[in-house]
Specification:
The protein has 5 helices and 6 strands. By secondary structure, the protein is an alpha+beta fold. It has a single domain (5-117), classed as Roll (SH3 type barrels). The relative contact order is 0.17.
């Protein structure tokens, strides 16, 4: 679960629109920029954000890789105005890479690969 106490205490708003999250920088624990959030994956039943698809590398979208990070592994950093993670860039790059269709379907081996990589239970 994401700790929202820091973001709500320094901001008058406790909520953020998804299009404002998309494009936000993701930083490593060491403070290095490692990518940007491309889109959020939301559980249809619970309404909770479960994953963030993050883009790495490339130039103007060419040659970029996308990897999925559990939302619970991202914390909003008010000083950097971005999200920090305890995952290293290498760990994220080692995560399964999926196309948009794989993520939206999230069935079969794609679901198992993602939850298995991060050692997280997949909630249906």
């Amino acid at each position: 679960m994401v700790d929202t106490s820091a973001s709500t205490s320094s901001s008058p708003h406790a909520f953020i629109e998804s299009d404002r999250v998309e494009g936000t920088v993701v930083y490593s624990a060491a403070g290095e920029r490692i990518g940007t959030i491309k889109r959020l994956i939301i559980d249809k039943v619970s309404g909770q954000v479960t994953y963030a698809v993050t883009f790495f590398g490339g130039f103007l979208g060419l040659g970029a890789e996308s990897h999925t990070i559990p939302w619970s592994r991202l914390q909003y950093d008010t000083d950097r105005h971005g999200y920090s993670t305890d995952l290293t860039e290498q760990e994220i790059r080692g995560a399964p890479e999926f196309s948009r269709e794989d993520i939206l379907g999230m069935s079969g081996h794609a679901r198992d690969a993602l939850s298995g990589y991060y050692n997280l239970p997949f909630v249906e």
